[in-house]
Design goal:
about 110 residues; mainly alpha
């Protein structure tokens, strides 16, 4: 199959590219900049950010394929998998740090 990435709206999106993106959902505006998907910057707007994060989760990979030139579908999938790993890793780190802080802060106030 011909590589149509980066051709804008005229790009044909392969079936392998379609699907949910944890990286786009969790790291929404950062992911948008890295993947040249500028509409994702709407995630910075209060209240609209959650809606945009969900939309990016569903449509982000397709938009990234259309907006940025990729070497191949495999290259695209590898990069998007890294975004997902970073997104999940950062969220887990914040959760663990928050949990530890919730345990330590009350003990320090005694």
């Amino acid at each position: 199959m011909e590589n149509t990435s980066g051709n804008g709206k005229s790009a044909i999106v392969p079936d392998e590219v379609k699907g949910w993106s944890w990286g786009a959902f969790l790291l929404n505006w950062i992911w948008a900049i890295g993947n040249k998907t500028w509409i994702g910057l709407l995630a910075l707007i209060p209240y609209a950010g959650l809606v945009m994060a969900i939309v990016l989760g569903f449509k982000g990979k397709e938009w990234a394929w259309k907006n940025k030139k990729w070497e191949s579908v495999d290259h695209f999938q590898r990069v998007q998998k890294q975004w997902s790993k970073w997104g999940v890793g950062i969220i887990l780190f914040c959760f663990v740090a928050g949990f530890i802080a919730a345990l330590i802060v009350p003990a320090l106030k005694r």
